Amino acid sequence: MTAEVKPAPLQLTERQEARRRRILHASARLASRGGFDAVQMREVAENSSVALGTLYRYFPSKVHLLVATMQDQLQHMHEALRKRPPTDQDAAARVAQTLMRAFRALQREPHLADAMVRALTFADRSVSPEVDTVSRLTTAIILDAMGLEGPPTPEQLSAVRVIEHTWHSALITWLSGRASIAQVKIDIETVCRLIDLTAPTPSSR
Amino acid sequence: MTAEVKPAPLQLTERQEARRRRILHASARLASRGGFDAVQMREVAENSSVALGTLYRYFPSKVHLLVATMQDQLQHMHEALRKRPPTDQDAAARVAQTLMRAFRALQREPHLADAMVRALTFADRSVSPEVDTVSRLTTAIILDAMGLEGPPTPEQLSAVRVIEHTWHSALITWLSGRASIAQVKIDIETVCRLIDLTAPTPSSR
DNA sequence: ACCCTCACTGGAACTCGTTCTAGGCTAGCG
DNA sequence: CGCTAGCCTAGAACGAGTTCCAGTGAGGGT
What we know:
mainly alpha, homodimer, DNA-binding, 205 residues, globular, disordered N terminus
């Protein structure tokens, strides 16, 4: 009945690591073409030279696969952003700048963005751990941009969560054509004001 | 000509209106039981004594159906909220209070909430008009809670959008078990500070 | 060398959203 | 009345995600 799903080998062999990469690559490529719908499990399997069953051993569902794809992409983005950190004086401005930069990166592959974000918000409890990882990555990016010295206060963490919420949701409204880029920009800037509000760093502590 | 999709009869007969109600009712009932997955089109059709094809004539997809269900529920909630408007002195607090009240209402039927919200964020362009309606309803609720006198400024509208983003996204994280209610409350309260921040009201600042 | 385990393969099978078809019913109109 | 348009019904059919199964092969332990 309740099949005890293998907890996925913690240590992958080289061949397995290669398979995993091929799968993620195929997933991203298909997603770039036609978004969520274009990522068809059979096709991902074929394109990565892996049997369908194997694909499901690596990623137990399409949503898992796409969320993992997002993790992958976020890693890259995080590194790219690290290399050219925002320069603005103001923390809020730095965060807004960073997010808009990320936004423009996603704009270049709107279908891929669509697939990943849709998967992310469609994910149910069974994907929580993976979604959480994505969330932590996003948090890390924002905290980096804030460039604060000490550890963030609970207040700041809440502000960061709100910014993340806004970021995801704004992305969705843009992807589904219900908001313009200008509007997204304004909303991002609006929400980033919370940073100044929760951290007038210069004197306290 | 191009795709000849019936634009849905603008004026429904009484029997048709009754059918529509039955469908929405069945949809909500099934959703309350088991969330998104439990809303199966065949079953909705059976439970509302309507042929599958007819169901699809009324709601062209499962997502359309669930978004319409959400419209319906939001209407009710809006009315309920109107009857007992929040009392707090502070606009931000009133909005936070209202949203938490709505939140607790959704808590009572977490599966239903899950189904509706998942549908909402999963919706693609073809559902934009309906999603937009839901968005407008939510906006109306928030603006009501703000209780402002004149028309809202663009700044305020942006703040309201951000609050909506946060609301949806926080709801999702709670539904997928990645955030506690306490956390949602904090985040809602955090984002509501934007209201005071953008308000041209004759108070401080 | 031999065997055993276990991941991988190819493909069938099942579910559920969605579409399509053929026929029946109703309402309005001559 | 009888006719014509639509709307509705029952049910088959199709597509994509997911599961299952029998067989194969390669690495590790003996």
